[in-house]
Amino acid sequence: MNNRKMSVITIISLALLMIFSFSNMAVAQETIEEITIVGVVSDQREIITSDGLIYFIDETEIGDELFLNYIGLEVSVTGEASESEGDFFITVSHFEEHTE
Fold first, then answer.
1. pTM for the whole thing?
2. CA 42 to each of CA 28, 46, 53, 71: distance values in angstroms, whole numbers, following the listed order
3. Is 86 helix (H, G, I), strand (E, B) or coil?
4. Neighbours of 12 (CB within 10 A)
5. 22-75, pLDDT tens digit by residue?
6. What is the CA radius of gyration of the chain?
7. What DSSP line would sit under 10-23, residue for residue?
C-alpha cells in the first residue's frame, strides 16, 4: 500500500510539473505584430535601426535574400515582429532598399 501511495504522489507531482512548465512557455512567448522598420543589415543576420534596436532576421526564403544581398545597406522591412527574452526577431514579408 505504501508503494502505491508513493506512485500516486509521483504521478501527481509529475503532472503538476508538466502543467507548470507549459504555463511558463505560454507566458514566455510575446505578442507577434506586423511592423515596418528601417535599418542597416549587418553581417550577423540583424537589422540595426537608427535608435539602436536590433532585430534578428528569421530564417525564411525572403529573410535569407535580405541577409545575403543587402549587408551594409539601409533597408525598409515589413514583417511580423516578436520578442523573446529581451531579443527582437522579425519574419520578413517584404523589404526594399531604403532611399531618402
1. 0.69
2. 27, 5, 12, 5
3. coil
4. 10
5. 544 444 456 688 999 999 999 999 999 999 999 999 999 999 999 999 999 999
6. 21
7. HHHHHHHHHHHHHH
